[in-house]
C-alpha cells in the first residue's frame, strides 16, 4: 500500500543549484560531502549538507553525521518522508564557541501535507577526528528578545499590567 503523502525527493545533477541555498552548484557544495569524498570544513558546511540530505532523502548520511547514531548500524527508518524541504536560511555561524564546538542558527522552510512551515533551530556541532558531527539542538525557535531598555521605578511596568514598575514587577 503506498502513501500518497510521501514526498519523492528531487533528482539532482552536479550542475544544479545546491538545495542548501549557498549559491553554489551541488557539485561545488554538498554533493562531495554526501558522497563521502571529503569531510565538511566547518560546522555550517556540515549543517548545510545535513539539510541537503533531508531534501534528497539521504537518510544514511543523516544517521552517520548525528552523534547519537554515528557508529551504529543504519537501518531503514522514516526520517520525514512526508516533508518537502524548500529553503534554508543560515542566520549565524559561531565557530569555536569552545575548542572543537561550533553553533549554527538557521531556519529550514518546508511543506508537509499541504501546509507550509519553518523550523528555526540553533544547533551544536563537534569536531571529532577531523570531522564535524551534529550533536544536539540547543534551541528550537527564534532567539529570545532581550529588553535592553532600562525601566525606571515610576515608568509603566513592561508586563502590561498598567501599574507603575515599582508597584508591580519591580517589587
UniProtKB/TrEMBL annotation:
Descriptive protein name: YchJ family metal-binding protein
InterPro entries reported in the protein's UniProt record: NTF2-like_dom_sf, SEC_C_motif, YchJ-like_M
Residue ranges of domain YchJ-like middle NTF2-like in the record: 42-135
Pfam family, one: YchJ_M-like
Amino acid at each position: 500500500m503506498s502513501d500518497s503523502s510521501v514526498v519523492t525527493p528531487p533528482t539532482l545533477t552536479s550542475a544544479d543549484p545546491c538545495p542548501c541555498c549557498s549559491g553554489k552548484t551541488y557539485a561545488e557544495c554538498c554533493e562531495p560531502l554526501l558522497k563521502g569524498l571529503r569531510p565538511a570544513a566547518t560546522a555550517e558546511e556540515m549543517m548545510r549538507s545535513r539539510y541537503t540530505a533531508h531534501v534528497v532523502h539521504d537518510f544514511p548520511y543523516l544517521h552517520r553525521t548525528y552523534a547519537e547514531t554515528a557508529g551504529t548500524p543504519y537501518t531503514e527508518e522514516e526520517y520525514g518522508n512526508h516533508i518537502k524541504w524548500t529553503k534554508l536560511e543560515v542566520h549565524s555561524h559561531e565557530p569555536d564557541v569552545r575548542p572543537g564546538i561550533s553553533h549554527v542558527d538557521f531556519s529550514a522552510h518546508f511543506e508537509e501535507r499541504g501546509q507550509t512551515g519553518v523550523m528555526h533551530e540553533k544547533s551544536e556541532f563537534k569536531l571529532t577526528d577531523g570531522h564535524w558531527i551534529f550533536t544536539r539542538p540547543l534551541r528550537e525557535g527564534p532567539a529570545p528578545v532581550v529588553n535592553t531598555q532600562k525601566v525606571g521605578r515610576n515608568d509603566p511596568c513592561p508586563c502590561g499590567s498598567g501599574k507603575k514598575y515599582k508597584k508591580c514587577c519591580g517589587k
